[in-house]
Amino acid sequence: MSSFPELSLSVRDLAVSFADKSGRLEVLENISFSLAKNEFVCLIGPSGSGKSTLLRTLAGLIPYSQGTIEYPDIHDRQVRTGLIFQKPNLMPWRNLSQNIALPLELEGKSRYEIAPKVREMIALVGLEGFEHAWPHELSGGMAQRAAIARSLVQDPDILLLDEPFGSLDELTRDRMSEELLRIWSEKTKTILMVTHSISEAVYLSDRVLVLSRIPSQIVLDLKIDLPRPRDSQLRYSTAFAKSAQVLHDHLRI
Amino acid sequence: MTQNKNQTQSHTVWQKISQHRWILPLLSILLFLGLWQLLYMLLKLPTFILPGPAMVWAKFLEVLKNGLWWRNLSYTLLELSLGLLTGTVAASLLGYLLSKTAMLENLLSPFLVGSQSVPVVAIAPLIIIWFGPGLFSKVLICAMTVFFPVLVNVLIGMREVSQDLRELMLSLKASRWQMLTKLEFPAALPVLLGGLRIGATLSVIGAIVGELVASDRGLGYLINLGRGQFDTALVFVAVFSLIFLAAILYGIVLFLERRALKWQTWREF
Fold first, then answer.
1. Residue B135 to chain A, least CA–CA distance (Å)
2. Most buried one in A144, A205, B36, B173, CB count within 10 A?
3. Is B160 near chain A, with CB under 8 Å?
4. Nearest-CA distance from B186 to chain A in Å?
5. What is the ipTM of this complex?
6. Contact assignment for B186 to A59 by CB distance below 8 Å
7. Which of A121, A155, A189 is the last residue of a domain?
8. CATH of domain B53-260
């Protein structure tokens, strides 16, 4: 890990539990990992494992019962994590530009500060010409690009993605993966992304974390040693298949 | 062949007519006036029972000229506007609070349902007794009529606010006020305006009932006046003015709805 010396997020002994009818349901247990600055890490696990819960806890949406979450690199109190959901979650009464502007509006930024940033983000995700389109006029892929632009407009240090391409068809999905890699290389962010696609995880990541069923623990921390920049040809290489095989074996437990 | 051509031609003419939204309503109004005139001529009833359209029109011009019409119409309009405004604001505020606290909703629900099942006609006399025959009691009656439909719709609207969007707002560290102004209000607005649409027309009934019970101004007063003087044409003028007023109110709410909801291009009103 010498190429990623600076830490961007460090999680130690994290535990999360929900209260349900029969008492407490332990969802996450002894979760410890760290993300280096500008690292792309995927989080993978069987369905029903606490992948989304972990991500939402990091985003501050779910309280945790034990452990620590530290952002060593961020010194001001406002932690800048951008969260991208499985659904684009655009507000139907706002057009594309207004949707992307939302986080800055909530911050209380002025119109003059917001406009150029929104324009920059729209260009980054390739949605020029759709500035005034309503969400219901956008395709699924375009809507998810808009959601990515919205999460980037605050220039957060860490992007948390919760199965962002899960509701897209496979072709769009692969194209969006490449888009995401391009954006990541342009904007250099630390990315933690939940997925249940092994090939997506291998294709995108520097490292893949594998979660077990609940109470979930990290059962594998796999470094993906594939050269960058990556193109779709890589999906058919032996090195790719080897990594996918390892993940596959650990997911079956 | 020619018949076929004629058919398609009449078809396009029909399409052209129905493209103008006001043509069909206008036709039905003309038909109504024609039937009325016919009935008037056939039955030959005394004019204090059924005046003809021409008489009513003459009466309208008369009261228009001597200022009686505008004096009473504007008064009812004032009652309605104040009543609608206060009723809608109060219902929206209470609706918001109720949606935030289930306990309060349970506590107040018997009164809310109760107030809905009692017709305005039944409590209008009480309100006049308590608050006098002036403007205040009429505004109160209007406000009470519009209150319930708006309240119920605000409650429904708040419940329909997407949980995913709430989560988005939370992840963006939105304050409670931002949650209200940037998410809950715009999300609940379509349903709220739907309630206002129902309430606006109902509140016309409320205003007239209040005026019929006791007043010296307003369209309800005009109806009473005409009835007392066996001036049935005047009653007709008042009733038509009332319909006119209700239609205008409905139109205004519809206009607001379209302006506010222009993003819903697929929505049919």
1. 39
2. A144
3. no
4. 7
5. 0.85
6. no
7. A155
8. 1.10.3720.10
